[in-house]
Design goal:
The chain has two domains: 1-34 and 73-208, no CATH class; 211-338, no CATH class. Helices cover 44% and strands 13% of the residues. It has nine helices and six strands; from the N terminus they run ααααααβαβαββαββ. Helix 1 (2-20) packs antiparallel against helix 3. The radius of gyration is 21 Å and the shape is globular.
Length: 338
């Protein structure tokens, strides 16, 4: 347990260390559009193209016709994108939040996976486990962790163009910490393909920031407890909702409405409409299931408040209940798929 606490403390300290390392840095991209403009207003349609640019997710996102053209961002938002100077109080708050969250997650993992079966570090590849849908879970986990650390470091006062790198690095490091702990478990082991999934998620987060066409796609997750979860618990299994892969569905959501708006000047409300493809497991994990369904682009919702923009951005990582059809192994229509 002492070694675990040491690793967690080191991981937590990386946040303030990386933030303070930039406190005296010169912001070289100050003349470029700040990341916040990813969610700012675009009142006039622009020619459609696929440039590789350093811009923010919001380039494709929020249209708010009620905001005047002479709108300017508030001072507290300018601080994040221009000063690039960390706030000591916020750095401390982020460090405390990260440490507390890491301890809670570590405690849950200890109870679910790591307790009572520790041994020498070793590698183990479980390609037969959960029909490899757990690899998608690692990709999503790497992406989600990168996003969380990105927003945490950005909130301290670091510009988004720098915070996106810190987010991806710290998110990957956090995922690899969990994988390393698995490496000391006799039941599991360090899975290199899982680690590759973690890396892929962090790399996808970075790529989506820099490569405009990827901003038309979003990785999402939905969950509804399967009947088998309760049966396994009654049988003495240690599995929790994280292992309940029959209840997981991983989605790639395509912003079809946003593309229609950008290409054909479709009405603003159309940008809310997404088409999503999902991957899940059937009962007893006997086969894989593929779905096609409707989805919502939360980042197209109106509102230029900083807190609202962060809320929509976070909710856009979840696929909420909506109509869907199962296309494999056979066709089943769901009026609402959870």
């Amino acid at each position: 347990m002492n070694s675990t606490l040491h690793i967690l403390l080191i991981l937590t300290l990386l946040v303030p260390v990386t933030v303070y390392s930039q406190s005296g840095a010169v912001l070289q991209d100050v003349n470029k559009s700040p990341m916040y403009t990813l969610h700012s207003v675009r009142l006039q349609p622009k020619a459609f193209s696929f440039p590789v640019t350093v811009n923010r997710f919001g380039t494709l996102h929020v249209l708010h016709p009620d905001i005047p053209e002479d709108w300017t961002m508030s001072d507290h938002v300018k601080r994040f994108s221009e000063k690039n100077t960390p706030d000591p109080f916020r750095v401390g708050a982020v460090g405390a939040f990260t440490l507390g969250t890491a301890l809670i997650i570590n405690h849950q993992m200890q109870n679910a996976w790591w307790s009572g079966d520790r041994g020498p570090f070793h590698f183990h590849e479980a390609f037969e486990y959960a029909r490899n849908i757990d690899k998608l879970g690692h990709v999503y986990g790497g992406y989600l962790a990168s996003f969380i650390f990105f927003r945490l470091t950005n909130w301290t006062g670091i510009s988004e163009s720098r915070a996106v790198w810190y987010g991806a690095s710290l998110g990957l490091l956090f995922q690899l910490y969990i994988e390393t702990q698995d490496g000391f478990s006799k039941r599991w082991g360090f899975e290199r393909w899982d680690a590759l999934g973690d890396f892929t998620g962090a790399a996808l987060f970075l790529a989506r920031y820099y490569f405009t066409p990827l901003q038309y796609f979003q990785m999402k997750f939905s969950y509804f407890p399967s009947d088998r979860l309760g049966d396994r618990r009654e049988a003495g299994w240690t599995e929790n909702w994280i292992d309940d892969y029959e209840g997981h569905t991983y989605w790639i959501s395509f912003r079809a409405g946003q593309l229609a708006h950008d290409l054909f000047d479709a009405p603003s409300w159309v940008r809310l409409l997404n088409i999503a493809g999902g991957w899940s497991l059937g009962p007893f994990r006997e086969y894989t299931e593929f779905y096609l369904g409707l989805d919502i682009n939360f980042e197209a919702l109106p509102g230029n408040n900083w807190l609202l923009r962060r809320l929509w951005e976070g909710l856009d990582l979840i696929r909420f209940p909506a109509p869907a059809i199962r296309i494999r192994p056979d066709g089943i229509w769901y009026g609402i798929y959870i």
